[in-house]
């Protein structure tokens, strides 16, 4: 484990008091101070350096002196070789495996036909009720059903896909470390293990079938594309990247839809404008991604050589967690960053990461969120937040509202 005198000097002692529970409930307070006082700092509870400003996150994500590494809890959950934690030829192969289905020209061909009927189906199920929980009845189901169908998992229910991403997500972010560099809560990985076993039991027979009879599903393409005739990629080689999909790619468009709506509810005039002019939805989604970044702090890089960043000397082989959700609240870049505001200058944000490991699904994810919100706001333009409870957000690695009760006149 790496240690540093920074955390033991008196003015940095507060960093050693940061807890996982605090970060999961609300990371913004601790990170606001990190950005101000220690934008690249060793955070003991995470057992890692953390980058919290936009400049430092971008510099590290795009620097030739760093390469990707999976966090310890992430590696424990996904195994090797997950696309987010590999480099060189293996990364090129995995990236080349997932990218063809996610190219804009490809996505444009089918995304509307895939997502719109799914969004309509879920809306029809609650439209007459006058109330719904947008997270569990709409945002998450639309997100998982769209990607599930794309992957070839039509027979896995949306509820099961939602359960899997929840289990994998909690396991992946079970990041607390002891002073000895051990996992503080090893039992927290059990639910991830359970999910992985269930996933393999469901996906193995499909892989058996697609090896014999290639199909128009993403996973079938992953097995066959770019391989010599008669050969397929080994299933153990692609499973860790299947888990990356079944966690992040399943969960995050749902987080993004719900967070964007919470943001719009906080600015009723902007909500009205978006309802009246749906062409503003992409702008609303982009601000939602900045305001509450779904992948708040889940990926990392490791220094390949000794390097000095923002005045901090890092030896070779030092992992740094990139907290993009914090970078997107950097007051050096955004005025009043805690406010959701579709009128702010459309500055770039880091919600999809940066460098050669930036999100491969940006184009697809943005369309899923746009189509879902177009359908919802067209079907129910008089949507109101049920203000009898506050909206609770949860998560440090992945972040979004845990529920979003809404009402409307029927
Ligand atoms: C709103 C939804 C989403 C957000 C906010 C998001 C964000 C991110 C972020 C921050 C990363 C890490 C980037 C880095 O380390 O610099 C990432 C990686 C990745 N994302 Fe997404 N993502 C979303 C949805 C999706 C979807 C739907 C897919 C696939 C269909 C996808 C595929 C991937 C892949 C394959 C990687 C790993 C890339 C690599 O390591 O080379 N993402 N995403």
Automatic annotation (TrEMBL):
<dbReference type="Pfam" id="PF00067">
    <property type="entry name" value="p450"/>
</dbReference>
<dbReference type="GO" id="GO:0005506">
    <property type="term" value="F:iron ion binding"/>
</dbReference>
<comment type="similarity">
    <text>Belongs to the cytochrome P450 family.</text>
</comment>
<protein>
    <submittedName>
        <fullName>Cytochrome P450</fullName>
    </submittedName>
</protein>
<keyword id="KW-0349">Heme</keyword>
<dbReference type="InterPro" id="IPR017972">
    <property type="entry name" value="Cyt_P450_CS"/>
</dbReference>
<keyword id="KW-0479">Metal-binding</keyword>
<keyword id="KW-0560">Oxidoreductase</keyword>
<dbReference type="GO" id="GO:0016705">
    <property type="term" value="F:oxidoreductase activity, acting on paired donors, with incorporation or reduction of molecular oxygen"/>
</dbReference>
<dbReference type="InterPro" id="IPR036396">
    <property type="entry name" value="Cyt_P450_sf"/>
</dbReference>
<keyword id="KW-0408">Iron</keyword>
<dbReference type="InterPro" id="IPR001128">
    <property type="entry name" value="Cyt_P450"/>
</dbReference>
<dbReference type="GO" id="GO:0004497">
    <property type="term" value="F:monooxygenase activity"/>
</dbReference>
<dbReference type="GO" id="GO:0020037">
    <property type="term" value="F:heme binding"/>
</dbReference>
<dbReference type="InterPro" id="IPR002397">
    <property type="entry name" value="Cyt_P450_B"/>
</dbReference>
<keyword id="KW-0503">Monooxygenase</keyword>
